[in-house]
C-alpha cells in the first residue's frame, strides 16, 4: 500500500469516527467525559465497518 493511499484511508477513518461520535453526542442528553468516551468506543468499530464497506463496494 502506498503512503498516499494509507493517508487517505486514515483520513476516511477519522472522518467516520468524528461523524459517528458527533451523532452520539447529539443523541444523548448529558454530555460528560464518560459519555464522550463511550461514544468514541462505540464509533470505533462502526468507523472500521464503514471504511471496509466502502472499500468492498469500490473493489479496492
Structural summary, described in words:
The protein is mainly alpha-helical and 60 residues long. It is built from two helices and no strands. It has helices at residues 3-27, 33-58. Helix 1 packs across helix 2 (33-58). The longest helix has 26 residues, at 33-58. The model has no long low-confidence stretch (mean pLDDT 89).
How many helices? The count is 2
The radius of gyration over CA amounts to 13 Å
Percent helix, as a range, is over 70%
Strand content range: under 5%
Work out the oligomeric state of the chains in this entry.
Answer: single chain
Structural class by SSE content: mainly alpha
Q: Note poorly predicted spans.
A: none
What composes the largest sheet? Answer: none
| Number of β-strand runs | 0
Separation, N- and C-terminal Cα atoms: 11 Å
Average pLDDT taken over every residue: 89
Task: Give the overall shape.
Answer: elongated
SSE succession: HH
Brief overview:
This protein is 85% helix and 0% strand.
Summarize the SSE layout with pairings.
Blueprint (H helix, E strand, L loop, with lengths): L2 H25 L5 H26 L2
Structural key phrases:
single chain; mainly alpha; 85% helix; 60 residues
Amino acid at each position: 500500500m502506498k503512503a498516499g493511499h494509507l493517508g487517505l484511508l486514515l483520513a476516511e477513518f477519522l472522518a467516520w469516527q468524528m461523524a459517528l461520535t458527533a451523532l452520539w453526542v447529539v443523541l444523548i442528553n448529558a454530555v460528560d467525559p464518560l459519555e464522550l468516551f463511550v461514544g468514541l468506543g462505540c464509533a470505533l468499530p462502526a468507523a472500521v465497518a464503514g471504511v471496509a464497506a466502502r472499500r468492498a463496494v469500490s473493489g479496492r
